[in-house]
């Protein structure tokens, strides 16, 4: 049984959980990425979509390209600290570019959005 989300729960700009996946509707495209942030494992299904269509982590706002799983902007903070950490941010972004999120296609099927493969 594939992982799925009711399409009515996934309007443009929404992120929802489906099994191990965060299913994202950027407004232009549906996709699914693995749920654990490459920084400190926050649940990306609790994240948001920004104006550029990137998935934003709910903890320290690392940004991901949901078509590649690549971290395109590193975290702004760590643990409970939220603020500038330039060298650390660059280092984590490098890691997030190498160790990308897993990516799957998500398609509308009937009343659901289904994660393929
Ligand atoms: S856990 Fe995602 S940016 Fe820190």
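Q: What amino acid sequence fits the structure above?
A:
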């Amino acid at each position: 049984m594939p992982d799925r989300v009711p399409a009515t729960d996934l309007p443009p700009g929404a992120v929802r959980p489906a099994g191990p996946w965060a299913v994202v509707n950027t407004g232009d495209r549906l996709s699914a990425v693995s749920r654990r942030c490459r920084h400190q494992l926050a649940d990306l299904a609790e994240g948001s979509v920004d104006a550029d269509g990137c998935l934003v982590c709910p903890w320290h706002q690392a940004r991901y390209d949901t078509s590649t799983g690549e971290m395109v902007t590193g975290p702004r903070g760590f643990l409970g600290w939220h603020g500038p950490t330039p060298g650390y941010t660059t280092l984590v972004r490098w890691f997030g570019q190498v160790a990308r999120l897993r990516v799957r296609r998500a398609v509308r099927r009937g009343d659901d959005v289904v994660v393929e493969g």
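Q: And what stands out in the fold?
A: Residues 37, 39-40, 42, 57, 59-60, 62, 75 surround FE2/S2 (inorganic) cluster (CB under 6 Å).
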